[in-house]
Automatic annotation (TrEMBL):
It comes from the Bacteria. Residues 143-272 form the CdaR GGDEF-like domain. This is Helix-turn-helix domain-containing protein. Residues 396-417 are annotated as: Disordered. Residues 329-387 form the PucR C-terminal helix-turn-helix domain. PANTHER family: CARBOHYDRATE DIACID REGULATOR, DNA-BINDING TRANSCRIPTIONAL ACTIVATOR ADER. Signal peptide: none annotated. Belongs to the CdaR family.
């Protein structure tokens, strides 16, 4: 008895695979490699890098390309990896059935290797920019001639000085691991459009593990500085979604040696601006508009640990309490101080009852041992709030409003069950 005929698997397009290999070996570029991959996989493809920029497209029509970009139904997304690093993503829509797993793996591996090879000079430039900006703002390079020479090697002319913009990003929606690369790419793109030769990098510190984007602008004019900062804000708003952004920019540093000071000015302004992103997706603040916060610049620059200690000794317990119980102690304290210590004025601004304000201020006293009824208590709490802003710590918002919440006194872990 003869066995049933077995359905033969479709043979891969060996010619297309060979074309992929030839495109890589001949250095024909990513577009040709992706077109060959599309033929081998019998699929429409879009290749996207880590910063969400489109590197190559192989689609049958403009509508097909748009559906791939929108990640529409039937579109698959495959991460491109070299070792443990994600170098990009390949969006794929099969045309006549699922491609062979083996062929897909070969194609994605070849494309990832080509992306890695072509991106190597850019990554070297990124690393060089980050190394220079780190050395500059950590005062590891302080000689004027050295600063100008190292910047010139990277394409920036700082002989007439410059300024600094700092971008802090806070995601309110789930974000992938490459969100910092997208923010950096958008900020750098806008900065170089307005100030050619601008340098940008993501800089981290022990107190700021997520990092912030720092942009050094080789521009000697205030009007140009503000124009470029506004351009960065517009580009972030248009191209990076799911985040709020706080931008701060320094004054112009006429001498490159003063760029260290400009970096701290921009960071202070960005940290203070963080408080203003609660109602808007982007808040921008110039250092000269930070008011009394400017007085804390020396503390932030020279002894941030002491500033952190003062914050911990004053309003940190209120931030922790608000975060855990979803109360409004910090906001109430801020409003009370802004209202010159007037309970009725505070209640009117917060649209709540005077008894509620008094109750919250008693909780402030219980948690901090500082009494808003005393001059000393108000001064320390006010400085604690300023220290919180300068350190870039945003106060929690949003009380629990469920029935029986008792003014927000419901633990978050119980509320979310």
């Amino acid at each position: 008895m003869s066995s049933p005929a077995r359905k033969e698997a479709a043979l891969p397009d060996l010619g297309a695979l060979s074309a992929m290999s030839d495109a890589v070996e001949s250095g024909l570029g990513l577009p040709e490699v992706v077109r060959a991959a599309a033929r081998a996989l019998d699929a429409s493809l879009v290749l996207i890098d880590r910063s969400s920029s489109v590197l190559a497209v192989a689609a049958r029509s403009t509508a097909d390309e748009r559906s791939l970009m929108r990640d529409a139904e039937g579109v698959e997304t495959h991460e491109l990896r070299v070792g443990d690093a994600v170098v990009g993503r390949l969006r794929l829509r099969p045309r006549s059935g699922q491609p062979s797993v083996a062929i897909l793996r070969i194609a994605t591996t070849m494309i990832a290797s080509e992306v890695e090879r072509l991106r190597a000079p850019d990554r070297a430039s990124e690393a060089a920019q980050a190394a220079f900006l780190t050395a500059l703002f950590q005062r590891k390079v302080t000689d004027r001639g050295d600063i100008i020479a190292r910047a010139s090697e990277l394409g920036a002319d700082l002989s007439e000085g410059g300024a600094v913009v700092v971008v802090r990003a806070h995601h309110f929606a789930p974000a992938d691991d490459d969100w910092r690369a997208r923010v950096l790419a958008a900020a750098e793109r806008a900065a170089r459009a307005g100030a050619p030769g601008s340098l940008a990098a993501v800089l981290e510190s022990a107190t700021d593990p997520q990092g912030r984007v720092v942009v050094l602008l080789p521009t000697p004019g205030d009007a140009a500085l503000r124009r470029v900062a506004e351009g960065i804000a517009r580009e972030l708003h248009a191209s990076v979604h799911g985040f709020t952004f706080a931008l701060g920019h320094s004054r112009i540093a006429q001498d490159p040696v003063d760029l260290y000071r400009a970096g701290n000015e921009a960071l202070l302004a960005a940290n203070v601006a963080t408080a203003n992103t609660l109602g808007d997706d982007i808040a921008m603040l110039a250092f000269e508009d930070t008011g009394a916060y400017r007085l804390l610049l020396p503390a932030m620059s020279e002894d941030p640990a002491e500033l952190q200690r003062f914050y911990e000794e004053t309003v940190a317990p209120l931030v922790a309490y608000d975060d855990q119980y979803e109360t409004d102690l910090v906001q109430t304290l801020e409003t009370f101080l802004d209202a010159d210590g007037n309970v009725a004025g505070t209640a009117a601004r917060l649209y709540t009852h005077r008894h509620t304000v008094r109750y919250r201020l008693e909780r402030v006293k219980d948690l901090t041992s500082l009494d808003v009824a005393s001059t000393d208590g108000r001064e320390k709490l006010g400085l604690g709030l300023k220290a919180m802003r300068v350190l870039g710590i945003a106060s929690p918002r949003g009380p629990a409003t469920e029935a029986g919440a008792g003014g927000g006194r419901v633990k978050r872990e119980l509320k979310d069950r």
